[in-house]
Amino acid sequence: VTNPSDFTFGINVGGSTDYLSLDNKLFESDQYVSGSSTASTTSGSIANTDDDALYKSYRYGNFGYDIPLQNDTYEITIKMIESYFSASNKRVFDISAEGVLIESDLDLYAQVGKKVAYDVQFTVQVTDGELNLDFYPSKNNAIASAIYIENISSGLRLSTSEEFGTYFEESGGLLVMEAEHYHEKYDRIPTSGSQKEEHAWTF
Question: N or C terminus: fewer CB in 10 A for the chain?
Fold first, then answer.
């Protein structure tokens, strides 16, 4: 169960360990991947970032991510590099989110060159309890180094937790979380302002 006042989630794509960025964002080890792909790493420095290690690990292929999330509005950042090719029109791919095309015919070398950090940021509405991201290549393999998710709705920010059998129910301005051994009620919290979280535990 995440902090309801500030839900974020990052994935270190292709990485076997967690990574904490210099701006204090946590990217957990690679998970929720689907499709056909290979995890790999590159050497040398990465331009246009101070988080070289985050971009050095990556996944390439024809793949996707199916990430369980509470239905809500999220800002998604996908972090990428061209790790291998030294010319344009060698790696070309599309990115879609929830079945909607976000990037068409993306050529990272044409955009920024080789081993240069390149981020794509967009907003998506999750309505089925799962964020579906897809990376479709048209030339060679699609590639990604990291995914970062931030809730940007005006109310409570919570993710589902299948591990603990959690579900959520909103009623009368309260969000009620029912779990196996307890339940918890949170007052609605604005995304701005000085109101503090209030909660009550019942065992």
Answer: C
